[in-house]
Amino acid sequence: MAFTFAAFCYIVALILTAFLIFFAVFHVIAFDELRSDYKNPIDICSSLNPLVTVEFFVHVSFNVLFLFAAEWFSLCLNIPLIAYHIYRHKTRPVMSGFGLYDPTSIMNSDQLTRAQREGWVKLAFYLLSFFYYLYGMIYTLIST
Predict the structure, then answer these.
(1) 31-43 as b/e, with b when 16 or more CB fall inside 10 Å?
(2) Looking at the whole model, is its pTM more than 0.85?
(3) Sign of CA dihedral 20, 132, 88, 33
(4) What whole-number distance in Å separates Cα of residue 43 and Cα of residue 89?
């Protein structure tokens, strides 16, 4: 049983994916509160917009580690979400601050539904990724 750089990458990815799961859960809960009128759009957007940048950075950071460790399958699993993050960042609404969510347009039914669906899909992706990284970590620790 040897501790390799690939095992380190999977451990880091496992920990950071746990944070991304919490971000996705917070995303889903926030938009559910917005849909049920428990919070106003300005509060929701001001709490979610800073987390979007952190989410993008965290997701790309452990994928760079996968690139350096030559874990190609793990990297290929994450490339579609990285491409989607880049697309969402490029097509974000014009606002005075940074982030993806504009308080003036988030209450549109289609925008709110899309944001909620995006949160659920990311949550499912991060949960599946978490268990895959757990498997990858155990496999690399045992196989070398």
Answers:
(1) beebeeeeeebee
(2) yes
(3) negative
(4) 21
Give the whole-angstrom CA distance, residue 58 versus residue 20: 8
pLDDT digits (tens, 9 = 90+) for 61-104: 999 999 999 999 999 999 999 999 999 888 887 766 677 888 88
* Pair of tokens at residue 117: 């669906």
Find tokens 């991304």 and name the residue.
20
- What local confidence, expressed as pLDDT, does residue 1 receive? 62
How many whole angstroms separate alpha carbon 130 and alpha carbon 30?
A: 22
Taking the CB of residue 117, how many other CB atoms lie within 10 A of it?
A: 12
Q: What is the pLDDT of residues 14-67, one digit of tens each?
A: 999 999 999 999 999 998 988 887 788 888 888 888 888 899 999 999 999 999
Complete DSSP assignment for the chain: ----HHHHHHHHHHHHHHHHHHHHHHHHHHHHHHHTTSS-HHHHHHHHHHHHHHHHHHHHHHHHHHHHHT-HHHHHHHHHHHHHHHHHHHTPPP-SSSSS--TTTTTSHHHHHHHHHHHHHHHHHHHHHHHHHHHHHHHHHHH-
